[in-house]
Amino acid sequence: MDPVIVVGAGPVGLTLSLALAAQGVPSVLLDEGPGKQEPRPARTVVLREDTADLVERLGCTSLDESGLRWTGWRSMRRKQVVRDVPLGGEEGGAPLSAPVHLPQHALTAGLRDAVGAQDLVRLVPFSRIDTLEQDPDGVTVHTREPGSTWWRGSYLVGCDGARSTVRKLLDIRFPGRTAVERHAVAALRAELPWPDRAVLHRMPPWRNGGAEVTARPLPDGVWRLDWLLPPRGELVTPDALITRIRDTLAGWCGETPAYELLDTGVYTLHHRLARRWRVKRAFLAGDAAHLLGALGTQGLDEGLRDAENLAWKLAQSWHHGAADLLLDSYQAERRAAVAARLRAADQSLPILRGGGGLRTLVPGGARGHDTLLADGHLGCGPLGAPPSYSHSPLSPQHDEAHTPVGTPPGAPVTDVGVTAPDGKTVRLRERQGRGHFLVILIAPGTGVWDRRHWLTAGVMPRLVEAVDALPVRSELLVAERYPGASAHTVLLVRPDGHLVAAFGGVRPAELFAAADAARGGGRSEDGTGHDTETAHSVRASVGSDRTVDIN
Question: Would you call 530 helix, strand, or coil by DSSP?
Answer without folding.
Answer: coil
